[in-house]
What does this fold into?
Amino acid sequence: MSHSAGRRATRAARPLMRPSRVFVQVNERCDSRCRLCDYWLIDNPAELDMGDLRDTVVPLLEPLSPLLNISITGGEPTLHPDLVQICSTLRPLAHSLTLVTSTTGLPEVFADLRSLVSAYLISIDGVDRRTYVTSRGIDHAAAAVEWLSRIRQETEAEIGVSCVIQRANHDRLVTLVEICLSAGAHHVFLRVPSLTDDAFGRQGTVALRTLASARLTEEQVALVAEQLTELAARYTAEQLPNAVEYDSLISVLRGGKPGEGTVCDVPFTSFVVTPNGTYSPCFYLPFSAPASDPGAVAELVDDIRGRMLHDKTFRARHCDGCHQFTGRRMDATDILAAMRRQWAQAHLGAALI
It folds into this structure.
C-alpha cells in the first residue's frame, strides 16, 4: 500500500479509535538529577499555564470525556505551583487521575490531592542511599519509601513504583522490589532505559553520560536475568506486571527490538499534552501539533496512524526498539479490527437508545 493510500485509509478510520488515556505534562522543571533524563538540564523549563489549561487543554479533552485515565506528569509535577488546581480542573474529565512523581514536592500538596488522585506512580531507582544518589542525583531514597507507606495508610489510591534498570542498580533489583512492596506499593514496574534522542528532555542527542549509565555488560545483563528469575518465582504478575515474563526485557537489555513486526497501539488510544501547549501522539515520538488547532491535530493523527500501520521504515526508526509499552503491541490488522469494533459498539449502542 502506498503512503498516500495508507493515509486515506487511516483518515477514514481515525474517528473509530477513541483515545481513552491522556498524559498531561504540566512542567519540565525537575529537582532530581537523573543520569538517564535531561529535564534538569533544560535552561528554561516550560510550565503549563492555567489559562492554557482552561482555554486549550480542557476544550481538547471535553469531547473525549469521560476518559479512562488522565496521567499528570512532568518534569516533577509536584513543583508546579498550581498542581492542585490543575488536578481539580481535570479530575471531572476522567474515571481516574494518576500522579507521576518522585515525591520530592509531595509534602506541600498531599493533603489537597488526597481526594483527587486515584493512583500514584512513584519513580524510585534505588532504595539505598548510594544507589539512589548515583542514579537520581539527590539523597531521597528513605523519603520516597516512606511516602509509599504513608500513601498506602492514608488513601485508597493504587501505588505503582517505576524503576529503570541501569548500572547503578542492576545488582539491587530484588532488594528494591522487596522493600517497595513491603512498604505499600501494589505494583513495581521494572523498565529498561529509553535511549531515543527525543525522550526525557533530550534535545537531539543521547549524552555520553546517559549511554554509560544505561548500557549493561553481558555479565551485568546475566545478573539481571538471575534476579528476574528469582522475582518471577516469588511474586505475581499483578505485583510485577512487566517482569514476571521477562524474556523481552532481557532481550532489550541485550540490544534486541521487541516491537519488530508489530504496531504499538499507544498513538491510537492515548496522547500527550505538553507544557508548551502542544499535542503529541506519544512521549517517545518527536512529532507535535498546537493543541489549540484541531485541524493540525487531526492532520497529525492521520499522518502518524497511517505511518504506524503502513510504514515499516517509520516503525523501525521510532518504535521497534521501544520497550516502554511492550504490552500494547499487536498486528496492524488487529488494531484495525479493534477500531471497527469500537465504532460498531458506539453506533449500535446509540441506535438502541
